[in-house]
Amino acid sequence: MQIEYRVNTPVTPQEFTRLLNDSFLGERRPVDDPECMAGMIENANLVVSAWDKDRLVGISRCVTDFHYACYLSDLAVHREYQKAGIGRQLQALTQQQLGPRCKLILIAAPAAQHYYEPLGYEHNDRCWVLDRDKPIR
């Protein structure tokens, strides 16, 4: 298996949606909302992708200022390609695109809670989430 990694190569909303469905992340993303999925991939400003020939098999989708904070919004690897180091390489290549003081920040899916600590991430319990249907009081 020869995996090619690409930085900011366009990924179609259909490819992105298919990958999320073929990973475990599709259960936690709005894959049934094509407009939202298109906006998610088209408005990310750092995308590192993994390809097996012309098949998207992994993605690191981020929103970042490149200097202080990089929110790794989606890290997904196709189920058939997991445990081959693709996720680790996607994160390493993502980090290489960032300035020396820039932090990678993410919210782990419950099933991936223990994946990140061995990679060097520190757990932070100060994350807060406000759903769009709940107005600021």
Descriptive report:
It is a single chain. Helix 1 packs across helix 2. This protein has 137 residues and is an alpha+beta fold. The radius of gyration is 15 Å and the shape is globular. It has a single domain, classed as Gcn5-related N-acetyltransferase (GNAT) (Aminopeptidase, 3-Layer(aba) Sandwich). The chain is built from three helices and five strands. The relative contact order is 0.17. The mean pLDDT is 95. The protein has a five-stranded mixed sheet with strand order 1-2-3-4-5. The chain starts with a strand and ends in a 32-residue tail after the last strand. Residues 3-137 form the N-acetyltransferase domain. It comes from Alcanivorax nanhaiticus. One of its GO terms (molecular function) is acyltransferase activity, transferring groups other than amino-acyl groups. This is GCN5-like N-acetyltransferase.
